[in-house]
Amino acid sequence: KAGVTQTPRYLIKTRGQQVTLSCSPISGHRSVSWYQQTPGQGLQFLFEYFSETQRNKGNFPGRFSGRQFSNSRSEMNVSTLELGDSALYLCASSFPRAAAGTGGSGANVLTFGAGSRLTVL
Amino acid sequence: AQSVAQPEDQVNVAEGNPLTVKCTYSVSGNPYLFWYVQYPNRGLQFLLKYITGDNLVKGSYGFEAEFNKSQTSFHLKKPSALVSDSALYFCAVREEIFNTGKLIFGQGTTLQVKP
Fold first, then answer.
1. Are B37 and A100 in contact (CB under 8 A)?
2. What was the pLDDT predicted at B53?
3. DSSP label at residue B17
4. How confident is the model at residue A56 (pLDDT cuts 50, 70, 90)?
């Protein structure tokens, strides 16, 4: 089956602009999480959406927002871009209900997309 | 608070030799532990996970990891390294009680396998 699809793969913006990134999860996956990856800070959790509701949020300013649609596709938006927002943004999907014997939903594996590389000039 | 540490920024090993990438964790309750690998300009690929049970977990591409509760470690191992194993490796943790998509990642370890 198709994996997690992120678009666009690469984009360049200037300071002050805004950007919207898209993520299509694996078919049947209902949870979508977003991560920011930078050389200095590593992988940091942005937020998670499940059934169109944000159920977990990382420690990022309000300029970072997201949403999820009824088909589980998700978008994240960054407004008033800053140079420090340059990063690889990764989306991951998972199916939160665990199969028997897997130890509970916390054992669910995140499947990541290839990422959207944002450069802010 | 949950945390993960990967003490080595880079690990160098010759092809055919065994490799170990180290990871230690800190959680309040029972941990779920994961290893992911990232190739250049790609997303993260899942290698293996520890939930409960056997302390030695086998994963993809010949990798395995050893869970040690007393040392709070989850080191990644492979008996014989390949040049194609060269990549960035991440250890991650989630507490058992949290049913979320949030993983806490280590800073990553670059594995360099030389011919």
1. no
2. 81
3. S
4. confident
Mutate to test the interface with A, among B100, B104, B110 (most CBs of A within 10 A): B100
Q: Which residue has the tokens 């520890």?
A: B50
Whole-number pLDDT of residue B99: 63
Instruction: Count the residues in chain B.
Output: 115
Q: Which residues between 71 and 90 in chain B have a beta carbon less than 8 angstroms from any beta carbon of chain A? A: 90
Classify B72 in phi/psi space as left (phi over 0), alpha (psi -120 to 50) or beta. left
Nearest chain B residue to A6 by CA distance is: B43
| Tens digits of residue pLDDT in B37-96 | 999 888 899 999 998 888 999 999 999 999 999 999 999 999 999 999 999 999 999 876
Instruction: From B5, B8, B7, B2, select the one nearest B111 (Cα to Cα).
Output: B8
Say if the Cβ atoms of A96 and B97 lie within 8 Å: no
The answer, for B108 touching chain A at a CB cutoff of 8 Å, is yes
- DSSP for A44-110? EEEEEEETTEEEEE-S--TTEEEEE-TTS-EEEEE-S--GGG-EEEEEEEE--SPPTTS-SGGGPPP
